[in-house]
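sorry to bug you again but im stuck and you know this stuff better than me. what follows is a protein written twice so to speak, once as letters and once as structure tokens for the fold. mainly i need to know what kind of three dimensional shape the backbone takes. anything you notice is useful, everything is just below:
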Amino acid sequence: MDTGYGLPVVVDLATGKTLEEIPSPDGGLIEYSTVARDREPGTYLAATVVRKGSADPRYGPRGAKSRIYRLAMDEKGRMTVEHAVSELIEGVIRSIAVSPTGEIAYARSTADKADRYFSFAGILGTDREWPVDDPYRLFWQDESTLVFPSRAEPPWTLGTNAKGEKFIAGGGFLPTVNVRSGATGKLPVPPDLTSYGMVRLAGGRTIWATEVEEGVHDTVSLILYEGPTAIGTVFSASKGKIVSMTLDATGRHVLVGHEIMRATGPGMYDNAVDQKLIQIDLQRVAGLPTPTRSSRRHLDLPQKTVWQGDGRRRIEEITW
């Protein structure tokens, strides 16, 4: 998570206390745009952004450049910036993903003088890049295949929410690319997925964020899948939304970012945000059989709230 101004913070999940802000590579003011776990325990990759004229991260990517650094965390949760792993890259890097063999993929957004946005995904150390719809939540399907998960491809389904509003409900596939051959492909996905991504478990099972209409509420859930078959519900929230999730290094726990917006008065801006980070134990998941037909039965996995906030920090992106 970060301070809301591009400064990531380290949180002790045992106590819920903030330990520190991640330091700047050069000791000056800095904006971080994304952080991801590296392959080695206690190491991370983070993208910093250099802007002309203003360091306010709320500005778009026009004129910005990014650089990726490797960070290390000690046993007390203190972070140090070790070294840069990239040169300056045009635009703002929005996501980083490390392959099983250690290749570093990134997705970046740029803008022209008319503030038209363009997004690309690439591999560090090569000149390979591909245009993508959105630069968020990039991930590796395997050591050679990148998945661009923010927007699903057709077939789309048209749904109606509790207010009678029409919306596009997910799709059938996510676009993929083989980084060796450049061949494109499609990864089948649940038809009601949201834009908040997925995590891949050991053995190939996945947990996807999905949204379905149930009565007067749109219920946002995390669903465990074996291929296209739903095994059960890992987490469900009848109010608010799931804004992020991440696995720990062992794959035993998933951390879920959940937010609820509530009104505090009659005005448009009279509201408050209740935030939680919820830790869910996945130990029993490996032994669950795959049903012959998809099931959304609740798996009743152990869970606990490890941090609570009031909206002053951003939890749309968390890394364990």
The first strand starts at residue 9 and ends at 12. Residues 1-149 form one domain. The chain has two domains: 1-149, 190-320. The two ends are 10 Å apart (CA to CA).
